Amino acid sequence: MPIYDDEEELVKVEHALAKSSPLVFAGECRQLHEHLAKAAMGQSFLLMGGDCAESFKEFHVDTIRDTFRVLLQMALVLTFGGSMPVIKVGRMAGQFAKPRSEPQEEVNGLKLPSYRGDIINSESFTEEARRNNPWRMLDAYHQSTQTLNILRAFATGGYADISRLHAWNLDFVEKSEEGSRYRKLASKVDESLRFMKAIGVNTESATFKQAQFYTAHECLLLSYEQALTRQDSTTGKWYDCSAHMLWIGERTRQLDGAHLEFTRGIGNPLGVKISDKITPDELLEVIDNLNPNNIPGRLSLIVRMGADKLREHLPALIRAVQKEGRFVVWVSDPVHGNTIKAENGLKTRPFEKIRDELRAFFDVHDQMGTHPGGVHLEMTGKDVTECIGGTIQDIKVDDLNKRYHTHCDPRLNGVQALELAFLIAERMRSRTGLPPLFNDA
Ligand SMILES: O=C[C@H](O)[C@H](O)COP(=O)(O)O
Ligand SMILES: C=C(OP(=O)(O)O)C(=O)O
Ligand SMILES: [Mn+2]
Predict the structure, then answer these.
(1) What family does the database annotate (predicted)?
(2) Is residue 120 situated within a structural domain?
(3) What is the pLDDT along the chain (441 residues), one digit of tens a residue?
(4) 50 neighbors 92 (Cβ within 8 angstroms)
């Protein structure tokens, strides 16, 4: 938690936020909860994706549209390929606060506080910029209102109409092999739609015309989250109305910490990131704390440990959860356990490691007979060069500088994200005994 040097300023901002409109409504959070309950029971799949850190500088309607578009493409691949409903959640409209490994950053002998996300301080390397400034919370709130407004318009105003599925292909993706796979799959979906129409299914209904899209971010900056927490008039329960779903990060999930204490009191569906550092007993305590009544859909466990550690540690965690009969959605975050520093000093992630972790996640669930319930990715619709590798694009370390725009961790670009969606769809198909979508799978 940042320390603000002027308490009065902080209180003023909290009051302003407390008077502002909620960004989401309790009923929407409950709807998402119901979808997640299906994922907990093995009947649905959660797709979460977006920037590591949203920023004020990169804010643009086109950027939001492009990420939304890749998520729609991925969801189509997963729904059609995996024959399962896909719950779409953007790391968007609130994903601003960052936990950092080092409290300070040193450049040419000068030490300043680390950049902690645009909602807290600024990335420029000056003393003033790195000061924790509570007013930034209001800027983040206002940007989130715009983002949500755009997302709601895209989701319900015709953009996400399934008959436009060919238009969701992004220019730079279209030219790649993934783009052509997507086109092939889209044609198959087209054919199915024509068949449905022919037998009298109403393809003009909201199911075909609109997407249900939800938002989530890390519940890190409690001043912001608490100020946006409201009591729902229909149920009397408290909801954090900054996003539909909130998750607790790997660094702030202590049993006696403020983040668990805050989130256990809100009605939103929750996530907890877990690395190999958590023990089965500790995990059960986290579950007891956040979901004492064992309600399916309430809690997602977002596993991020790297392929090798996952193969070693995940089975025991799953066994403990199974033994106690606890309902959780098992989600793979295959990016956070695979961050490395390239020779040029930039943080990157090898695509192959990300793919290995996903494969390991599916293998372990196959062995344990449990449902691999979702994936959580840092990704963007832009053609960035932040993660090296990829079967199709094969970004090299020397390419990283070309379009390295992230404000924190390296993101998958559209082609890389789509490649993962195809991989997951093939795994989902083989679990249900369906033949591969493409023969080279
Ligand atoms: O997004 C996650 C963390 O904030 C990020 O990985 C921390 O990065 P750092 O190790 O550069 O501080
Ligand atoms: C901080 C993050 O992840 P983790 O808590 O898993 O490190 C994140 O998702 O950006
Ligand atoms: Mn990150």
Answers:
(1) Belongs to the class-II DAHP synthase family.
(2) no
(3) 899 999 999 999 999 999 999 999 999 999 999 999 999 999 999 999 999 999 999 999 999 999 999 999 999 999 999 999 999 999 999 999 999 999 999 999 999 999 999 999 999 999 999 999 999 999 999 999 999 999 999 999 999 999 999 889 888 888 888 888 989 998 999 999 999 999 999 999 999 999 999 999 999 999 999 999 999 999 999 999 999 999 999 999 999 999 999 999 999 999 999 999 999 999 999 999 999 999 999 999 999 999 999 999 999 999 999 999 999 999 999 999 999 999 999 999 999 999 999 999 999 999 999 999 999 999 999 999 999 998 777 899 999 999 999 999 999 999 999 999 999 999 999 999 999 988 765
(4) yes
439 belongs to a structural domain: no
| CA-wise closest residue to 375 among 24, 44, 117 | 44
Annotated binding site: 52, 91, 250-251, 273, 304, 336, 378, 409
Atom of ligand 2 nearest to the CA of 220: 1
Our answer on whether the CB atom of 99 is closer than 6 Å to any ligand 1 atom is yes
CATH code where residue 400 lies? 3.20.20.70
Cα–ligand 2 centroid distance for 250 (angstroms): 6
340 found inside a domain: yes
Choice from 48, 221, 251, 386 to test ligand 2 binding pocket (greatest atom count within 8 A of CB)? 251
**Tokens representing residue 192 in the block:** 């199915």
CA 353 to ligand 1 centroid distance, Å: 18
Does the predicted model carry a pTM greater than 0.80? yes
The ipTM of this complex is 0.98
Per residue, the 3-state secondary structure of 172-198, as one string, reads HHHCCHHHHHHHHHHHHHHHHHHHHHH
- What range does the domain containing 46 cover? 7-105+134-431
**220 within domain boundaries:** yes
Number of domains composing the chain: 1
